[in-house]
Write a structure and sequence with these properties.
Elements (H helix, E strand, L loop, with lengths): L5 H25 L8 E5 L5 H10 L3 E4 L2 H8 L9 E4 L8 H4 L5 E5 L2 H13 L4 E7 L15 H9 L4 E8 L7 H21 L4 E7 L6 H6 L4 E4 L1 H4 L7
Parallel strand pairs: 1-2, 1-8, 2-3, 3-4, 4-5, 5-6, 6-7
Helix pairs in contact: 1-2
This protein binds pyridoxal-5'-phosphate (PLP).
Pyridoxal-5'-phosphate binds next to strand 8 and helix 9.
Organism: Hominenteromicrobium mulieris
Family: Belongs to the pyridoxal phosphate-binding protein YggS/PROSC family.
Keywords: Pyridoxal phosphate
Length: 243
Amino acid sequence: MTEKCFEERFRDVEENYKVITNRIAEAAVRSGRKPEDITFLAATKTVPAEVINHAIGCGLRFIGENRVQEFMDKYEKIDWDKGVSGQIIGRLQTNKVKYIIDKVDCIQSVDSVKLAKEISRLAEKIGRKMPVLIEVNIGGEESKGGIEKAALPELLEEIAVLPGIQVNGLMAIPPICAEKSALCNYFSQMHQSFIDIRAKKIDNVFMNCLSMGMSSDYAEAIECGATMVRIGSSLFGPRDYTR
Ligand SMILES: *Cc1c(COP(=O)(O)O)cnc(C)c1O
């Protein structure tokens, strides 16, 4: 792929932003909700800060990075003053929490007590309660992060007591499915867990955010109950990993 000049990328992002926002709104209404009930988070891995800022200029307010190093490299260049929320959506090593603890508004990829304890410890030190999502490996895939759905109750019980953390919901990346019905089955299972946990009214566990759905399947995810979608390539174009 030849590198497109920024002007061209900016135009694409503007157009894509409108298309995605409309599709999100339509899917929200189809699922009996309001467009503003769904949060559009942009997955910004490999995307230069200039392009991210252009999307922020279009109205984007939530961005998610996968890797701590990349987040730190772009951090100073992002237009945070527009009221933008930065979140971690990729696998997070315990020893890297210290770099991002004062810079992010949510960590979506919590999948162990060890990681949760470190987030809590460092958040407490700076007087914060860090919102987190528990990542669920809904397809039981070895290559992916997240905990098995069956292990959720026990993990929640252990994490809920940590003083520097607030559990705000669940995150999932389902397996690639050839059939839409199989995909919707995974999304619906996540939504059911979300509802079941909420009904338990566990102290310090809030089910406000169900983060699922990416470029290829965000409309389906919303129809199955997602409250947040994480969109990369549909907004920014194909990723260039060679940069
Ligand atoms: C890259 C990524 C996305 C977005 O993927 P697209 O298919 O490009 O929309 C969403 N969530 C996570 C965790 C990602 O790493």
